[in-house]
Amino acid sequence: MSGILFIISAPSGSGKSTIVNQLRSLVSRLEFSVSWTTRGPRGSEQESREYHFTTRDHFEEMIRNGEFLEYADVFGNYYGTALSTLKEAFAQDKDVLLDIDVQGASQVRAKMPDAVSIFLMPPTPEILATRLRNRSRAEGSVREEDIDRRLAKARQEIENYRDYGYILVNDILDRAVEEMAAIVAAERIRHGNDPGAGGADRERVLRIAHNCRQANSEARIRPVLQAFGVPVPAAKG
Ligand code: 5GP
C-alpha cells in the first residue's frame, strides 16, 4: 500500500464532522473512509455515506473473518474500518482519512506506524457541552446524564493526545479547516507525492503544519488541558 493514511480523532461533539466535510471540498485525492457500525442512522445520515450500518451479528462475523484493520466498541456500539476500503483507495492512488476513536487509532498505529495522526480538541468543556446539547436537541431529546457521560469520555480521550503527531484546537472553525488542509499538503510534500509541491503555497502550508505538530503546540493546548482537568506537562525553559 503506497498512499498516506491520515487518522483524525476527537471527542464526540468537537466539530470533527464539520471540519472533515469542509476538507472534502478543499483537498483532492483524499478518500474519506466510510466505517462500519452497529449503531442506527442519526438525523439525515444515509447508508454508505456516513456509515455502513449493520447488525451486531454481521459485524461479529466480519471480525471473525479478519475483515477489519481496526474496530472498537464506542458508547456500546461497534465501529470498524474495513481493510477493503483502504486497499481500494490506495489502488486508485489516493490517500485515506480515517475518522476513528482513540482505541482504533492506537490499533492502526501499531499496524501502520507511518500513519499520520491528528487529534482535534474542543476549546473548553463548556463549549463542548453546548455543542452536545444542541446536537441532542436537534435529534429530539437532551438527556443530561448522556451529556455528562460524553464529557467524562472527552476528558479520557483528551488524555491520549500525546499519542498523536498533530494537535488542533477547534476554537475557530476556518482556522481548524485550514490547518487540516495544511497538514495533508505538508505530509504529501514530505512523502514526495504532491504534484503541486513547488507552488507558492509550499512555505505557508509547511509553516502551518509545523506549528500544529504536537511538540510545537504546547502553549496552545495548555489552557484546554487545564479546562478539562487533564494533567499539563511541565512548562519548557
Ligand atoms: P458517532 O456515533 O458520533 O458517529 O461516532 C462516535 C465515535 O466513533 C467517534 O469518536 C468516531 O470517531 C468513532 N468512530 C467512527 N468510525 C469508527 C471506526 O471505524 N473505528 C473506530 N475505532 N472508531 C470509529
Q: Descriptors for this entry?
A:
globular, 4-stranded mixed beta sheet, alpha/beta
Structural notes for this entry:
The protein is of the alpha/beta class. The protein contains nine helices and nine strands. Helix 1 crosses helix 7 and helix 5 (125-138) packs across helix 6. The chain is globular and about 50 Å long. The relative contact order is 0.17. The protein binds guanosine-5'-monophosphate (5GP). Residues 12, 35, 39, 70, 72, 74, 79-81, 99-101, 103-104 line the site of guanosine-5'-monophosphate.
Question: Major sheet: order of its strands?
Answer: 2-7-1-8-9
Q: So how many helices? A: 9
Distance between the termini: 42 Å
| Number of β-strand runs | 9
H-E order: EHEEEHEEHEHEHHEHHH
Main sheet record: 5 strands, parallel
- Silhouette: globular
Structural class: alpha/beta
Average pLDDT over all residues: 93
Oligomerization category of the chains in this entry: single chain
